[in-house]
Amino acid sequence: MTRAVKKWFRKVLGDNSPDSSIAAQPNRSGPDPQDDLETVRQERDELKILNHLAQNRIHYLEAVLHSIPEAAIVTDSFDRVILANDKAKEVFDFTLVEGSHKQLNECIHDDKFLDLVKQVQQSASHKVAEYSQNVANEQRWYNVILSSITDGHKNDSVGVLAILHDVTREREAARMKTDFVSSVSHELRTPLTSIKAYLEMLIDGEVQDQRVPAFEQSSDLEIVPVIWRGDRSA
Fold first, then answer.
1. Following DSSP, what letter does each residue of 151-208 receive, concatenated?
2. pLDDT by residue (tens digit) across 9-56?
């Protein structure tokens, strides 16, 4: 055994030899264990405070995300979903326990949307795109705003924020407007064609009905070019 081990045994066994008395004396020149213990306690308390602040910041970000009426998803640099509000879970039909992470392709199975996120992640840029999905035989349309989350120091992409604005109603309203204009134009064109043909017959004197007055006044003829122009515009 080494001398240090022997000293330890003598101390435990109560040996009163000189070596034992020397070993029992504290090392005055070395650091005080009480000081080391106090330092560890201070560092532990600081870590607790930092962890508490970090948790509060995460809860604040979650509250902000859930207050957004649109679907919102936040991913990290490893393509994991770290935050998602209820609307996003509804749109893509997935669950995410608070404080847990899931791979993006486990939550979203649409390759088109995954490609959008990948492009923004790799380019560390912003992108606005149209995205559609078919749910229960119903087509839904979204304007997607994707922004790269960059490190303030290195300007590297550390994640992606995606917000989906549902524009299905707007697109449906635009389609109905287009259909209405097309229908009205068609309905107007049909009677104008008949009126034009009848006017031509009146001008050419092909109408023999005595109840129809002849076009003798210039004011009567002024209506003809108006109808002609209306027919072309329709």
1. -TTT--EEEEEEEEEE-HHHHHHHHHHHHHHHHHHHHHHHHHHHHHHHHHHHHTT---
2. 455 455 554 454 444 455 555 566 777 788 888 888 888 888 888 777
Q: Highest mean pLDDT range out of 81-90, 197-206, 217-226?
A: 81-90
Q: Six-digit token pair at 129?
A: 């795109």
Same domain, 162 and 74: yes
User: Which of 148, 166, 184 represents a domain boundary (last residue)?
Assistant: 166
Distances (CA, A) of 54 to 61, 62, 88, 160, 174: 11, 12, 24, 20, 46
Write out the E strands in 85-137.
Answer: 102-103, 126-135
pTM higher than 0.90: no
> How many domains, the chain?
4
Q: How many CB atoms lie within 10 A of CB 102?
A: 17
Structure tokens given for 192? 């104008």
- Domain carrying residue 7: 1-26
Pairing verdict, β 71-76 and 80-84: antiparallel
The upper half-sphere exposure of residue 80, i.e. CA atoms within 13 Å in the direction of its Cβ, equals: 9
Q: What is the largest CA-CA distance in the chain?
A: 151
13 and 49: one domain? Answer: no
**Is the Cβ–Cβ distance between 117 and 105 less than 8 Å?**
no
Residues 182 and 140 in one domain: no
Structure tokens at 87: 């609307």
Query: Do 112 and 141 lie in a common domain?
Result: yes
